[in-house]
Amino acid sequence: MEMQGKKKVNIAILLAILMVLLVGFYGLVKPLRRVVLEGAHEFTVGQVVDYQMLYSGISLAPGVWQVELTYETDRPLGYHCTATDATVRPGALLTNGENLYSGKGVTGFKLWLLEDTDALEIRVSYDGQGALQTRDLVLQETRGLGGMIFTIGLLALVLFVSMQWYRRHMAVKGVSVGTKKAVFGVLVITVMASVPYLLGVSMDAGDLVYHLHRIEGIADGLTDGQFPVRIEPEWVHGHGYASGIFYCNLLLYFPAILRIAGFPITLSYNVYCVLVNLATVAIAYFCFRKIFQSRQIGLVCSALYTLSGIRIFKTVLTGAVGENNAMMFLPLILYGFFLVFGTEVHVEQRKKAWLPLGIGFAGVLQTHVLTCEITAFLTVILCVVMVRRVFTKECFQPLFWGAVTALGLSLWFLIPFIDYFFTQDMHIKHVSGRTIQMMGLRPLQLLFGWADQGEVAGMGGVKLQETTPAAVGWFLVLAVVIFAGMCLFGLWKKQSKDIAGLGVISALFGILMMAMSLKAFPWDAIQQIHPLFASLVSSLQFPNRFLGWGTLFGVTAVGCILWYLQKENKKYITGLVLAAAVVSVVTGGLHLNDAICKHRTSFTLYNVEGMGRGYISGAEYLIEGTDGNTLLYRAPMTSEGVTVESYEKGGLQARVACRNPESKDGFVDLPLLLYRGYRAVDVQTGEELALQYGENNTICVNIPAEYQGEFEVGFVPPWYWRVGEWISLFSYILILSYCFMKKSAREIIDGEAIETTKKEVGLGYEE
Amino acid sequence: MKSKYMNYLWYLLVLVVVLLPLVTFQMPACGETNTWLMGPKAISRIAGAGTMVTKVFLALIQLGTLLTSGMLFRKVFESKEGAFFATLFYMTLPYRHYLLYDAGMWARAMALMLLPLFVRLLISVYTVEKRQIWKWTLAAGAVFAAVAYSDWVIGVLLADVVLVSALWYRKARGLAPLVPGLVLYLPDAGKLLQYFFVGGLEEYQLPLGSIMGNGYRLGRFLTSFMYKEGLPGIGLGLLGALVLLVGLAFVGENFHWEKKCTFPAVVAGVMMILSLAVFPWDLVQRLGMPFVRMVGLVVSPAVFFGFAGLPLSMLGGAGVEAFGKAETDKVKFVQILLILASLGASIYMAVA
Q: What span, in angstroms and rounded, lies between the C-alpha atoms of B304 and B154?
């Protein structure tokens, strides 16, 4: 009877999901509507207007609409156009509008309309300066609403099928109570870490807008037919920006796909951040559980790591997407090295160490190069310390294959990166003069919990609570101290050498990382030693970047202490440590999250035009000498005598028909930055036209004397970039196949064999 | 003999607690009566000083809440731990803290003080023998009226929940308290209905606008220490207890879902949905002017989350009770943590 009831419920849910998919599919294939309104308005110079209503009483059905208002202005930037409707409910009309540019001539921003209306208005604000005339308005329906509904239906279907599979798996094979507890624990930690992303807004964060531009750039690149996206085509007002070459954007493809599906920016980003939190918790849990052979320690460590003050600071307050993503992979590297250098680790386990090492290093490299620098630094020190074991066969093999795996997985990013780094004079190669010591922390800042969302890096004249909440936290520092004390008192003598060794390395490296984050650390003096050091140190920008690893080492020290207490069956002290861990998390990460939710200013971005297309932070990836401020929308410029007859630009392509009746060569200067890889080809003859740098490092196509014809300019990646991409793709497929085959083989192995393996490991196994 | 006098004392207590808010002839300015002023007025005649009046009055509300919630949860839970923790969670609800110390909405705080008393009496209406039902019905009706006089929104929600509970448990007797309750509330109800359907009261400049913008987002429910103005969260201790309950249900080991928890869970869930910023209250207002006035007078959907505080506290207590049955060796450790979390967060909110 109960089974029948459950079956009916499942059928009902499945039908509902299929309905959603059908509705979404219909939205993707149906004919799109278009509303055209003729009109004209000229703004009076000197008369400031706060959102003049140009069109009103517009009837629209629910959907995602593109607003195309034609206009003429002589100012490159200065006015804003948006849509309003006082009759719909709050949250039923979502848009940020768009700025108006002299070089563009038509808006293209989207609005999300979630209920019928007869009163939509299009408004423009005018500051009284310059000429501005508006013309016709076109409202073009897009497939955004259908895309969103279809995507939601698809995700619901995947979730439903996964849950059904899980239920059947549970019924057939059984899932232990410990596993269920761990899964629940992971989900709870994820939810608590994601509170700022469950508010429907984006918190004001220094780097956030830059990373949102990266996501938009990927979406633009994919819709432009570029894969993988190397140069974000619409960035820098359509000139293109090579951020994708220097700042790997692999993990940002997911939110970019959500954007293509039609979801607004803030929602796409928030969903992505929640998934990153889930992955961080899951990976950290997996690694610590494997190291300490305890689910409880795995959960405690993953909570301490994910809810650490420094991670929330980087994730939410700074918007350091790359650094946050890199922190996801650090536990894998720790686990990999533990397997390699552990003397009590089973041979079969050590042979597999290449996998977490390879994925860990590839992950860090492909998310945040600066964290990779720090990781490389630590790896070198570790290998020096363990030099005797590094060159033994049993250790060298997994290290070697780990490096090969990391390289294989990363080649698609590394080859273009190295290519451009050595062949292009990028601005990033000229920023070695930046000093970082003054951005370091005071020792007390490392300990502090109860942080607010303050931003001051130093402490002079401000309360501790208002300073940068980039803290490791008192609990982790105390753990390092306690571990050191345990070593001094010889408590580790009769314990596992691997865990003891791990604790010692973690304590020492943890202290080193914390020290390097301090203002007292002589960064300025180090920069003076050699230009290479100056460049490396300058690129770090903030010493608090070392606290990612510092926190991980502190958490590992906690894990070692808990492992010892469990081994010695010290229940009361274990309870005390766990209570302290809970207090640490509550007064640290949770408190900071609450403070952010209460005090932090926030914004909600729906369409990319709401943040403009020009922000490039420090302009690191411009060609040196380019003035980013003058890279605005514009038409092609020509030399004397050359006439442009037609011009089309889309993404990284431009198609120009022109004539040069002169007897000398001329040029056409296009609004595209000349990165290596662009080619100009005559459409008729296929002949390549020479390119040179324009006045602001833009593409200047050489037009031969007496030329009349049409040419096309486009970005063509070099063949060796494609080779790297194929090698990486092959590597990813190999890794996935290996993991899948290993899992299947494990399920077939007899239970006794698994128990035997566990006993051989010698560390015990907690169910 | 002793129990007979205890019964009379009990009736007297209920009468005194209930009569105070009943005596009013003031038009509600925002749906809350000025009755609560009578208490501080009475205290000021004894104490004299202004701030002392406030402190004593707030202390009385806290004491009253402690008594009423204690009475309710002692009846609901088998174990003392369940009752204790449910009472603790209700006492340390951030929404109550917000009403008392941030917003100064003492009338609503009084309504939330009387809410557990009404539920306690309603349980008796459902469970006692038929010949005894009348006195519980009258008492519950009086308390209902007192709640409604204190805060009409809480009163309306309570009436709706009583209606649904009668359907849920399929016992018409559950509706009985509404009869004397509505009769006693008639004077105020008449004035409110007149305002909703006829209008007037322009001099009070009563709010008529949209309330959706003041609603909750999912993350706001999960705050522990601090909250954005008007949107307090579940609170640290209660959050921990609810995680326990959900976790036990998820794992399924040594766990049995108590049927008595189902209705409160549904009520809490529905109330939380009503408090969301995405709940289309504007569509309700489009039904006509009465609804414009009615919804506008609610001002903020946060009141629905405030109402959910009672069933959520009960679920929290159930979580602790269930954990005690399932994991005997960690019980004390978790209980101490929950007490520290509840009290600590409450103290932090008070002093920070």
A: 8
Q: Which residues contact A245 (CB under 8 A, 6 or more apart)?
A: A230, A231, A416, A417, A420, A621, A675
Instruction: Tell me which chain A residues have a C-beta less than 8 angstroms from the C-beta of B253.
Output: 177, 180
- What span, in angstroms and rounded, lies between the C-alpha atoms of A67 and A53? 15
- Block residue for tokens 């919630």: B69
Helices (H) and strands (E) in chain A — how many of each? 26, 21
**pLDDT for the residue numbered A78:** 77
**pLDDT tens per residue, range A372-426:** 999 999 999 999 999 999 999 999 999 999 999 999 999 999 999 999 999 999 9
Q: What 3-state class would DSSP assign to A717?
A: coil
Which pLDDT value is given to residue A719?
95
Q: Cβ contact (<8 Å) for B251 and A198? A: no
Residue B279, phi then psi, degrees to nearest 5:
-70, 130
Cβ-based interface (< 8 Å): residues of B facing A: 210, 212-213, 217-220, 222-228, 236, 243, 246-247, 250-253, 277-278, 280, 282-283, 333, 336-337, 341
B260 pairs with which residues across the strands? none
Contact A64, A146 (CB under 8 A): no
Q: What is the pLDDT of residue B253?
A: 81
> What's the per-residue H, E or C state across A248-287?
CCHHHHHHHHHHHHCCCHHHHHHHHHHHHHHHHHHHHHHH
Structure tokens at B142: 């009086």
Contact flag B219-A598 (C-beta cutoff 8 Å)? no
Question: Are B116 and B72 within 8 A, CB to CB?
Answer: yes
By three-state DSSP, how is residue A711 classified? strand
Please state the length of chain B: 352
Q: Where are the domains of chain B?
A: 33-351
Radius of gyration of chain A (CA): 29
**Contact in structure between B14 and B118 (CB atoms under 8 Å):** no
Asked if residue B283 lies in contact with residue A92, where contact means CB atoms within 8 angstroms, the answer is no
Q: Is the peptide bond before A228 cis (omega within 30 degrees of 0)?
A: yes
Residue A46 burial by CB count (10 A; 0-12/13-18/19+): exposed, middle or buried? exposed
**Which positions in chain A touch B225 (Cβ < 8 Å)?**
590-591, 594-595
Which sign, positive or negative, has the C-alpha torsion A325, A331, A334, A339?
negative
Amino acid at A371: T
Closest of B24, B36, B302, B285 to residue B157, by C-alpha: B302
pLDDT digits (tens, 9 = 90+) for A422-448: 999 998 888 767 889 988 888 888 888
Query: Which distant-in-sequence residues (6+ apart) come within 8 Å of A602 by Cβ?
Result: A199, A201, A202, A203, A204
Tens of pLDDT, residue by residue over A141-174, are: 999 999 999 999 999 999 999 988 888 877 777 7
